[in-house]
Design goal:
This protein is of the alpha+beta class. The chain contains four helices and six strands; from the N terminus they run αββββαββαα. The protein has helices spanning about 5-20, 55-60, 80-85, 90-105, and strands spanning about 20-25, 30-35, 35-45, 45-50, 65, 75-80. It has a six-stranded antiparallel beta sheet with strand order 1-2-3-4-6-5.
Length: about 120
């Protein structure tokens, strides 16, 4: 299992309470898409949260670490370890932060459909 299924169900419930969302398997984990943007996701290391570059430093002071999926830090994305989000109130605050950020972004335009062969 690439991510914690129990944690996934908790995140699913929290996201559903706030907005419509789409789940996608990505990066070997699970992503929660809100307003056409990835808000948060689950990987083996914990909860991946999109906070935006303007909130990046603040997120690091709250128990998150830099996301370095590509080997380089990804400003605006942080990873919150499983042991931190094991507390339901802390999990809820991170999910709220991610959903709020995604909802504040303009929706992406739909991708053009590929012609069928």
């Amino acid at each position: 299992m690439a991510y914690d299924e129990v944690l996934a169900e908790c995140v699913r419930e929290l996201v559903a309470d706030r907005t419509d969302f789409v789940e996608k398997k990505m990066f070997g984990g699970l992503a929660f898409m809100v307003n056409t943007h990835m808000a948060c996701g689950l990987m083996s290391e914990g909860l991946m949260v999109r906070v935006g570059s303007e909130n990046h430093e603040d997120a690091l002071t709250r128990g998150a670490r830099e996301m370095d999926f590509t080997g380089r830090p990804m400003r605006g994305m942080v990873m919150v370890p499983d042991q931190v989000v094991a507390d339901s109130q802390i999990l809820e605050s991170w999910v709220e932060r991610a959903v709020s950020y995604a909802q504040a972004q303009p929706p992406k335009p739909p991708k053009p459909k590929k012609p069928s062969a």
